[in-house]
Amino acid sequence: MEKVKILFLEDDKEINYLIENHLKNEGYDIDCAYNGEEAVHFFSANDYHMVILDIMVPGIDGYEVLRQVREKGNIPVLILSAKDAESDKIVGLGLGADDYMTKPFKIGEFTARVKAQLRRYLYWNNISQELNPVIKHMDIEMDLNTYEVRVSGNHILLTAKEFGILKLFMTNPKKVFTKAQIFRTVWEQDYILDENTVMVHIRRLREKIEPDPSKPTYIQTVWGIGYKISEV
Predict the structure, then answer these.
(1) pTM, entire model
(2) Averaged in consecutive runs of 10 residues, what is the pLDDT profile of the chain (232 residues)?
(3) What phi and psi values does residue 209 have, to the nearest 5 degrees?
(4) What are the two backbone dihedrals, phi and then psi, of residue 205, each rounded to the nearest 5 degrees?
(5) What topology is assigned to 5-124 in CATH?
(6) Potential cystine with 97: which of 86, 92, 137, 178 (Cβ 3.0-4.6 Å)?
């Protein structure tokens, strides 16, 4: 099943890492470029459903990358820039960008804008609406479009936070997550006030999906570190 593929241009390593991991957790396939030349190379060698770019990057600037994207087609382009003057937004939108966000930004709003642009593009171009595939691991299936979860064929009703935790594990099947990493990703906050918050949600999630919550089959505790999903 083909994933939606996104090209992301950003020279700030921290922002690049944040966006890359967040979009991967959302089920997207993403290529990250750190300068204009690299972005142009990626774009010429691959087919993308969306481009997200900064304007002020080394080498070829974001405006030139946008111009070359527009020469090839009508895929959505989101500018993510620290330049917040009205004139900058007018130039970016005038050159063909579909949306313009300024830094600093909230990851929730960013994600909503990305999904909105993709929905419109995929709908009007009669491309499959499966923005995110159904994720399968062992006996668990997650539909990231409908937020449905099935375990051994049985429908399981999860809260938003429980769903977010399970999605994090299933989209990163070999990674061990600390409680702080889980909190930062699922709650979208940098600081965890009480580690019990994550532990309580893990316990409730296990009670819903595990055949025997006292002997977890799916969500494993890695003592002294955190949690991960079981290997197949």
Answers:
(1) 0.58
(2) 84 92 88 95 92 92 92 89 87 90 90 88 63 78 84 90 91 89 83 79 94 92 92 71
(3) -110, -20
(4) -65, -45
(5) Rossmann fold (3.40.50)
(6) 92
